[in-house]
Design a protein that fits this description.
The chain has 317 residues and is an alpha/beta fold. The chain has helices at residues 16-29, 47-57, 72-82, 102-110, 128-146, 162-167, 178-184, 210-228, 232-263, 276-305; strands at 3-9, 34-40, 61-65, 87-90, 116-120, 158-161, 190-194. A 7-stranded mixed sheet has the order 3-2-1-4-6-5-7, with helices on both faces. Helix 5 packs parallel to helix 8 (210-228) and helix 9 (232-263) packs antiparallel against helix 10. The protein binds uridine-5'-diphosphate and magnesium ion (MG). This is Glycosyltransferase family 2 protein. Its EC number is 2.4.-.-. GO terms for molecular function: glycosyltransferase activity. The chain crosses the membrane at residues 235-256, 276-302.
Length: 317
């Protein structure tokens, strides 16, 4: 099979039939064999029964129905495990992406040999204040953090080589940063293609303002994991050691000056605890040891996880 098309959806009853008809037409015109995976992420409208009806006439349709709304990342994850095509395409269900882009995306992966071709909504039809401007900021932050130079990380329309979706683990809200996950997994042949975009014809956006907070925290996680995920001791151990040494030297200095006061200058009234450095030294030593232990635990956790397959073998002879 040439193509697997993955469509996560939440309450998109009005778009599904038109979306499938357009996909079917464009694939037939271009002689592409394909399957479509609809993932119903806990819809409460008629979406699932529409998918069931479509399935009766079109055996190339598959559906996954979640018992509740788990989020777009989980929907993609479930489909990534199932798909069989050589090239995998993801797209949103709301008709904002154009199915007519599919053949060209397919060619770029198949012939152009890219790991990922990511859509770029160059001319975007969303609210300027709540979507377009924040998304510019996010994209530039993501470029800096990841070193992957894409204009539009979170475009729903993307094409992948099969190995890519089989190797990455989309969790939490990480669907926003799939190209970064892929790059961290060693798939660095990533490019983008300007794609058409239109305003949402039916329904409303499923992501509210909470996406700013989540998007930002996920970016911090990504930065940290890609820098220190494989060697937590290098971060925690280093910070912990520096703090502990500062604390320890301060404590020695405090103790020595107390001894000097008592035995040389015969001053008895100065309590060590009156000196602010006493508290600094104490805190530094406690925090330093805690950081060190955190790094050590991190290393142990990694060691256990390495038992599981966490790599992708490109060739085997
Ligand atoms: N979606 C989903 N689960 C969710 C939220 C969204 O499957 O929890 C789907 C949604 O139905 C759509 C796609 O993800 O097909 C993109 O969502 P939306 O169009 O609301 O995002 P926007 O275009 O506003 O960024
Ligand atoms: Mg949309």
């Amino acid at each position: 099979m040439n193509l697997s098309i993955i469509i996560p959806l939440l309450n998109e009853q009005d778009s599904l039939e038109e979306l499938f008809t357009r996909i079917d037409t464009v694939c037939q015109t271009n002689k592409l064999s394909y399957e479509v995976w609809f993932i119903d992420d806990g819809s409460t409208d008629l979406s699932w029964s529409i998918i069931e009806n479509l399935k009766i006439q079109h055996p190339q349709i598959h559906g996954i129905k979640f018992s509740k709304n788990y989020g777009k990342s989980q929907a993609l994850h479930a489909a990534f495990e199932k798909v069989n095509g050589d090239v995998i395409i993801t797209m949103d269900a709301d008709l904002q992406d154009f199915p007519e882009e599919i053949p060209e995306l397919y060619e770029m992966v198949k012939v152009g040999n890219y790991d990922i071709v990511s859509g770029w909504k160059k001319k975007r039809f969303d609210n300027v204040m709540t979507k377009n401007i924040p998304s510019k900021l996010f994209n530039s932050a993501a470029r800096k953090v990841s070193g992957v130079s894409l204009h539009d990380f979170n475009c729903g329309l993307k094409a992948y080589k099969k190995q890519v979706v089989k190797s990455i683990d989309v969790y939490g809200d990480m669907h926003r940063y799939i190209p970064v996950l892929a790059a961290n997994a060693g798939f660095r042949n990533i490019t983008e293609k300007p794609v058409q975009h239109q305003a949402r014809p039916y329904g409303t956006s499923k992501f509210g303002t909470e996406r700013f907070v989540r998007g930002f925290l996920d970016l911090v996680t990504l930065w940290f994991v890609s820098r220190f995920g494989g060697r937590p001791m290098h971060f925690f151990g280093a910070a912990g050691t520096v703090m502990f040494i500062i604390g320890f030297l301060s404590a020695i200095w405090l103790g020595l000056s107390k001894l000097i006061d008592v035995y040389i200058f015969k001053i008895y009234g100065n309590l060590i605890a009156n000196n602010p450095w006493f508290f600094i030294a104490l805190t530094m030593m406690i925090m330093g040891s805690l950081l060190f232990v955190a790094g050590f635990l991190g290393e142990l956790i990694i060691r256990t996880n390495r038992e599981h397959k966490n790599y992708h073998i490109e060739e085997l002879i």
